[in-house]
Description:
Strand order of the largest sheet: 4-5-8-13-12-10-9
Number of domains: 2
Low-confidence stretches: 1-17, 59-82
Strand content: 25-35%
Amino acid sequence: xxxxxxxxxxxxxxxxxxxxxxxxxxxxxxxxxxxxxxxxxxxxxxxxxxxxxxxxxxxxxxxxxxxxxxxxxxxxxxxxxxxxxxxxxxxxxxxxxxxxxxxxxxxxxxxxxxxxxxxxxxxxxxxxxxxxxxxxxxxxxxxxxxxxxxxxxxxxxxxxxxxxxxxxxxxxxxxxxxxxxxxxxxxxxxxxxxxxxxxxxxxxxxxxxxxxxxxxxxxxxxxxxxxxxxxxxxxxxxxxxxxxxxxxxxxxxxxxxxxxxxxxxxxxx
Length: 269
């Protein structure tokens, strides 16, 4: 029988299926995916910021330590400069004195003064004021003076040494840090007007004298390339090693030993 639209189907409640159901499911899945991606991105950013803050926090103490180290280095450099004196000036703080004119350097105690003479031919090192007794028994207040020369030694100094008598046997000393241009050991001799009077000490090189022996020319100060290292009590105003006369029993004092320490520290460049 033909169906002309007036059959039983006409009275049924027929609802068509919703349109695009498959497309809506895909949209919801896409939204969830982007939400997950957004959360992951947020977590990554949060972690990155936290790590950056942590590194910055740890770096600050290191920076302070570095700054402190730089300040310490600068302070050490300043202190080193303050305790190292060139031939252009003097320093009473002690330290190292360098003379390019005489090609030498040495260390000296605090309180002592090191300077060059006006003609740049001599380095003069003087102690603080000290008490000592002269040969005649009188008390004196003065300085101990160490003199250093390189080149032609003045005639007055040569005459003083050749006329002197050794007041004690020469002493062998070792330089603290000798350079390639100097010997490791040397003799120090003690001279005076007679065997019972100490006037000066002098580095005598290979010359080893006995007590009472005339110095004569055993201490060689001749030529244009001679070195002279000598010292005694007083100022030696005439620059002839004319120091105050001291009894041979009383010249060996702490001040004298400090002068010997200066001699031992010599470095000849």
